[in-house]
Amino acid sequence: MKDKIIVITGASMGIGEALANVCHARGATIVLAARNAEALAAVAGRLGERALAVPTDVSRREDNERLVQQTLAQFGRLDVFVANAGRGSPACPRSSPTTTSTT
């Protein structure tokens, strides 16, 4: 991972933040992306050099385009893109009713 430019979405907390920490510790430059600008800045601050925070809502195409453009403008390339953003559901998914056909 040394010297790789890695974009990680959902990087403000949880798995994304943990992955950012590991990759950064192994020598990668990390572009942190998530909606929460304050949390992103805090993660980038903890990482120090080789970290760039780009507030991004991955559900918005223009935010994704800006994320890639800023990465390329700052570092000249993008080696790895980790699409980690998302939310889990605290409850089990509802099962759909089973339909039986009598044909």
SSE succession: EHEHEHE
Q: Helical content, roughly?
A: 25-40%
Number of helical regions? 3
Biggest β-sheet strands, sense, barrel = 4 strands, parallel
The computed structural class is alpha/beta
Description of the molecule:
- With 103 residues, the protein is α/β, with parallel strands linked by helices.
- Helix content is 37%, strand content 18%.
- The protein contains 3 helices and 4 strands.
- The chain has helices spanning 14-25, 37-47, 61-75, and strands at residues 5-9, 29-34, 51-55, 80-82.
- It has a 4-stranded parallel β-sheet with strand order 3-2-1-4, with helices on both faces.
- The chain is globular.
- The model has no long low-confidence stretch (mean pLDDT 90).
Sequence-ordered SSE layout with sheet pairings:
Layout: E1 5-9, H1 14-25, E2 29-34, H2 37-47, E3 51-55, H3 61-75, E4 80-82
Parallel strand pairs: 1-2, 1-4, 2-3
List keywords for this structure.
18% strand
What is this entry, summarized?
The chain is an alpha/beta fold and 103 residues long.
